[in-house]
Amino acid sequence: MALIAQIALGVIIGLAQAAEPTGTLTLLCQGERMSRSSSDTAPAQEQVSIGIIINFTDRTVKGFGGDWSLPIPIHEVNETFVTFEDHQAGLFEASIIGIIEFDTGDMEAVMKLSGKTGKLENFYILQCKPTQRMF
Fold this sequence. Notes:
By secondary structure, this protein is mainly β. The protein has one helix at residues 2-19, and strands at residues 24-37, 44-55, 60-62, 72-77, 81-88, 93-101, 106-115, 118-130. It has one domain: Porin (Beta Barrel). The longest helix is centred in the N-terminal third of the chain and has 18 residues, at 2-19.
């Protein structure tokens, strides 16, 4: 009886661990970035193409280049989406928050920087496609 319980527990633990993705997913994301600063009279819009790397093992998102060069911690991940966010304080205040929906490939993110010289906000609305197989 104890052996059956151990086997059943091992199967349950194995299934629970299988639900959490591991490895990396590389996405090519294209769309629009709208930038607004405290010194601008109107926001600037531009078409962008960026590579996003979701590292499920390290639970980070990377790929915003010079806009945000640090790995961004994953806040939540499930079978339909991943959310990420980070906050940095020091000489300036900085934050980034975003979501990537796996079913549609839609990604939205907002990055804000503020310091003595003013404020900058970048809004991303992108469509992402995997550059490699997920599974």
